[in-house]
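User: Mediator of RNA polymerase II transcription subunit 22, Thecamonas trahens ATCC 50062:
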Amino acid sequence: MSILTANMSTKDVLDGLGSGGKGEAFPRRKAMRRLQSSYNDEVNKLLSEMASNYQSLLEAAALPGDSTARAHDAETFHISAALRVKTHTEALVRAGRELLLLIAALKRDRCLAQSAAMNAAVDAARSSAANATQDASDSLDELASRVDELLASLETEYYVSME
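Assistant: Predicted structure for Mediator of RNA polymerase II transcription subunit 22:
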């Protein structure tokens, strides 16, 4: 089983939902923190298991009695401890892969967000330019109509003064 909790699959992590975190402000970041915490817990378990195994081997070697029996017991214990360490290590490798996938998803999301922001800025600039162009065109039309009115009034005054 993955070191993820029972209610949090890799797909949930990559979807950014974690354990049903719909509506969270930053669901992928929260999922990543949960996964990192789980990963750190697994590392701590592995280290304590290794320390415990080492201590037990030292104690077994110090017991009085038949050295062959002690060696056999120590070897059996060492094999079972090695299998437990291997299981923990495999879980750590899986968790590491899941973290890398999550980091890649976060980077992809950041790139998409930056792209969306740039597209929005370009659209806003285009809209602003179109509005400014329309305003300038309206102002020119108004100015042209005023000039036409002024010319018509000047022409009328000229003809009136000529009579």
